[in-house]
Amino acid sequence: MQPVERVNLKHVLQTVCVLEAVVLRSFGPDGGQVLFTRDTGQLMLSRSGKRILTALRLDHPLARMVVECAWKHSEVTGDGSKTFVLLLAALLRGIQTEACEGSVASRACMARARHTAEELLAFGLEELGDIIGAKVVPHSVNLSWESIGGRRDEEGPPRVDANADDACDVRRLLAAFFDTRLGCTHSRLMSRLTRDLISLWRRPTDPPSLALRFLEKNLTALHTPVCGFPARCCRLIEGQVIHRDFAPSVLSDGVVLEVGGREGYTEGGIMKYSVWAERSLEGVVGTLRGLGVTLLLSAGKQSEAALAAARRAGISVVECVDEEELSLFAELSGARPAFECWRIGPEHVAELSFCRPVVLGAHSYVQVAFSAPEERGAVRPHSLVVCGAGEGQVEQCARAVRDALRTLLAAEDDSGTSLRPHRLRPPNVETHATTTTTTICTDGASSPREGVWDSRCVLPAGGAFEFLLHRALLQHSQARCSPTPPPPPGRESGVTAVCQLLADALLSIPRLLYCHRPRDFLQARRLSFAMCCRSSTSLCSGLHQGGGGGECSVPVAAGQQSHGLFSDGRSTSDAGLESVVCKYQLILAVLQCLCSVLRVDAVLQVHKTPHTKASPDTDDDDDDEDML
Amino acid sequence: MARLSKKLPALCTDLPLENPDVIQKFTVFKQLLTSCFGPNGKLKQVHNNIGGHSVTTSTSQVLLQSASPSHPLLKVVATSVLSHVSRFSDCGLFTAILCFALIDQAKLSGLRRNVSISINEYLLDMCTTYLHQDGCGCKVKLDFSSSKNLITLAWSVISSKPACMLTPQEALHISMLAVQAFLLTVPCETPGNVRLGRTVTVSVEGPAIATSAVFPGLLVEVPDHLTLGNKHNLQPQRLMKMVLFSVSLSGDLFEMDEGTVEVNHGADMESEIMDQLLVVGQRAVKDQVELFVCQKVIHPVLQQYLNQHDVVVIERLGAALVEPLAELTGSQPLASLVTAISPEAYGHARGLNVKIFGSKRMLHLEGPGEAGICTMALCHRNQTVLSELKVACQKAEHVLRLTLREPSALLGGGCTETHLASYLRHKGIGEVAEAASSLGCSQTEYRLGLEAFCRSLESVARALEHDGGTPLVDLTHCHHWTVPVDVTQGQETLSPPPRCGCGLVSSASVERWTFLNTRYDEFSPAAAAALPGDSTSSQPRVLDCFAAKMNALQVAVETANLLQDIRYIIQDGN
């Protein structure tokens, strides 16, 4: 048995501060990239907090616990793990100064800190949602998908510009995301491409979450990485790209298509086997020809003889197609994969509008486009071509797109479970809320005091949420300090302190965001306060007016318009958007993590083989067993 | 459980570009690449301690592939350069040198990284718009009616690879061959969608470079004992029927799937297959096939049989040549022995004759019509230079093909870089206020960033000189000039060379020069093509591929931005 390591507040703070220092390097739009290397020589680039934290492979159990919490959070929302760590560190610092006032013994200090953390969590679970609903949400806008469904630029121009429709909410939300993930140089192009991709895949009648979920699931098959070109060559191309080339020397334009399993032969006898096999092959090819097939996709590898037979029959063959691509293809084309070559019928055949070789980078692929669009509504399948100077950049870009989709999904997702983790209703209550509803009304009956707010609320990125909530919390604590009926004494002072603590910690986020440009910090703060002073309803309506006209200007009054410029020339109307729900979830996750970190009082180093673990360890190393 | 070994914590480097260790590695790598640049570049010999042959090269592709850097940041540069080169074949070293120069200059300028990144991006946009303009002063429209510019382009690629060890005449010869091969692969008859043919390169060690040649059709290496019958020698242009097999005819069992084969007692599989082979032979003879080609091995008995019937047999063609041969002759590769050969599977060839290159005997085959397939036989003294020459020729061919998409070229010899730098200075200073406000930085920051970018471009031009020559720039066209070192030693006043780096401007037409490193008042550089004087003298002598250089410029800026943006390195040792 190893010596027991007592955990005190200082240790916890130190651990979190180390994480903070790492994460801070890539925080916000001014942050930089982090480069990982593996011993295999693989290079990866990332600004995603989640990847950075997991790549650190930390030893310290507390740090691992924090990383795991951050990881789980960003798994849901696709973003926010850096803010998670920063907020946690800020809260811990606040708690430390408060709990260790005077020279208190470390154990008492720890106990006090634990108590504060628990109060914070209780506050977060019970009151924070209402405060946000009452004070922050009125200043927000509903994420509108209007422009995304309404106007689709056919084969949009590949370069930037098209400012007018760039102002749509979704693009701005994406832009804010890509700013922090890819840097401001590429965020414009990538956010536009992602927006276009979504709008092309979305049926106007369906809720956007369907398209988002579909895209997120199939992104691997729907994007093509291309190295050696600058990132500005990223583009969308029509149809699906099958990431294989035609089998040699067959070039013909296909009209009809067949999804085939592997063409197999059954077991044979001796020499006559091959004669028999070729006969049977001829038979299969004959059937295909009878169905008018000119393109054969196959998951397996075909033999030379099969290729030659197909060639004679004028059938192009694409072999070794990835299962995932094949299933996507089947879904899009409506053809069913054939598993036995003897039973190929019309249901295995689909019609394509074109099928042609396409050279992307070093590889030659097959591009297919689907006909009969009226059947699938207005969905026009497109694929994303991701370019970059090297593999690392391309991979980073593709990952960012995936995470962006996840973030949008989280902002769009209105199954109330993720929104209010503490009030889990039985699942049947939650799930019947259809995806089309815009508000969450599940809790209406049980707790009427709760503000009903939309999960799709968005606020301008760059600290607006933090400023607003900061102010709201301060107001809340003041209101609680001087209420007319005197409340139970101990509890109320706790709430005020807790409000103050959280408010201060929140403010540290924009402070770090603008650490290179202190003037902008003041500017941003002033704007959000200006936002508060105005009556909330007029703000919202003003926003909507602006949004409808395409020139969506975020809460800047006419008088302040001239001051609405940051030092880097961006006006607030260019600023991105971020989802309020994601932020709320983030705070709750941080508070929960804080609580669990502070509840640990000792770390035991155990050198046994961890027989309790039945499953092989996956990405997240679960070390909770080591802690008491 | 033994597999659950403890994972090592990762090795982290904070702010790598400020780490002295990293800076030193950067400098070494930069010097290594810079010293290879251009026609006077120094050669590098790479050899492995474990063994294997050593490589002598100055091309970025070969160098970076054989000696890959170990530091992660340098790896990023190397992969960027390699993937650029794999797409465009040219300007690999340009990418690397510009990238390093941008990083160095950004550091010297003392700008905050985000500011310098956005200024670089902005200036890159300015460059690309200028280079795409028609009035661009460093661009030359390619004229396909004369091969002169094409040869210049090819020559620039080949002569910038000093490891090929070519004399000027030899370099010209090879460039002409490259252009000839390129022209042979462009089909003239087919309307509509044009599909380029291909060039097959055959390298022969030993004979002089002057014996290198380009042939329409294919050259297939044949064994010494192959002789052509009299009728081939007498009528070389006669069309002859041929058949091409892609399946092995050696008499072994056919390729089969996972199924099992049960051999009954007494069954003689070999003789059965042998019989089948002879059936194939008989059928070929009956169909009057005169050339019998197989990708793999042909059984000697079958060979013997075919030879007896005056059929020319070629075996072990190799997978690489099957497709060109099928295209050339119009035959369909046969993958089976048992099905009857359909009439359209037969192809036709003509012009059968044997060529001898040094130790190699090659059978020359031509197709019945225009197929766009040609063979370049490259000869050189030894293996090392030959492989470099092969690389150079492939690059030249690729560069020539790229001109079809974008029929223009950029001035070489450092002139594009100096010209572009001067244009940027002029344009950038002119609109400093708008640029600064749109970038969100101060005007001073913008000026610093602009100067850093221009200096980086100029340092690429400077990198062309390795022997201590003095780089100059003229104050009319802003082209790049180099005063060789011995001239400066002898005389007090500098006398510029007769022609600028690209050969477009002669010293007679320029009045003032300045040293490349010095500050000069910005002005709008005149386009040199509008030069008064006879048209023969104002032909550029060095040209760079437009598409390759554009992409290289963008990749270099993007990579430099990326490197500046990297704040943290995590090295996982597991």
From TrEMBL, chain A:
Pfam families: Cpn60_TCP1. GO terms for biological process: chaperone-mediated protein complex assembly. InterPro entries: BBS10 (IPR042619), Chaperone_TCP-1 (IPR017998), Cpn60/GroEL/TCP-1 (IPR002423), GroEL-like_apical_dom_sf (IPR027409), GROEL-like_equatorial_sf (IPR027413), TCP-1-like_intermed_sf (IPR027410). The keyword Nucleotide-binding applies. Keywords: ATP-binding, Chaperone, Nucleotide-binding. GO terms for molecular function: ATP binding; ATP-dependent protein folding chaperone. Belongs to the TCP-1 chaperonin family. This is Bardet-Biedl syndrome 10. It comes from Muraenolepis orangiensis (Patagonian moray cod). The lineage of its organism: Eukaryota, Metazoa, Chordata, Craniata, Vertebrata.
UniProtKB/TrEMBL annotation, chain B:
This is McKusick-Kaufman syndrome. One of its GO terms (molecular function) is ATP binding. It comes from the Eukaryota. One of its GO terms (cellular component) is kinociliary basal body. SUPFAM superfamilies: GroEL apical domain-like (SSF52029), GroEL equatorial domain-like (SSF48592). InterPro entries: Cpn60/GroEL/TCP-1, GroEL-like_apical_dom_sf, GROEL-like_equatorial_sf, MKKS, TCP-1-like_intermed_sf. It comes from Muraenolepis orangiensis. Pfam families: Cpn60_TCP1. GO terms for biological process: chaperone-mediated protein complex assembly; cilium assembly; developmental process; protein folding.
